[in-house]
Amino acid sequence: MNWKPISESELKSVLDEALAALSPQQQKQYRAHAVMPRKVMCSRTNSSELDPVFVIADGKGKIIFYDDVEDEFAVAPCSAEHIGPSTDWKLFTDLGSALAEMLA
How far apart are CA 17 and CA 15, in angstroms? Predict the structure, then answer.
């Protein structure tokens, strides 16, 4: 099976499921930092090749985006306006753990 980038509707399904798994406190924290999902370009490797990812939250100089290659949430140090060609992020299997890292 060939990989293809996640669509906005597929992301919505993933995000709905992830939000349902959060505690009420985590949901409140997420809503306080959520941004309208938007595509930004990032480098998944040390090459200059850029791929699209969807940013879903922004806070404390970090963002959460969904890595559709790994099917995980990622936290990167930057703002939602610019992720840049960086591989400096951490992957998390669940949104709650990614949210805790972003707010740490």
Answer: 5
Q: How many helices (H) and strands (E) does the chain have?
A: 3, 5
* DSSP conformation class of 82: B
Helix (H, G, I), strand (E, B) or coil at 52: strand
Element (H, E) at 40: strand 34-42
Q: What is the pLDDT along the chain (104 residues), one digit of tens a residue?
A: 677 889 999 999 999 999 999 999 999 999 999 999 988 887 766 666 777 889 999 988 888 999 888 899 999 887 555 555 466 789 999 999 999 999 99
Matching residue, tokens 């610019």 = 82
Quickly count: other Cβ atoms within 10 Å of residue 12's Cβ: 13
Length of the chain in terms of residues written: 104
Q: What is the dihedral of CA 45, 51, 53, 58, to 10 degrees?
A: 70
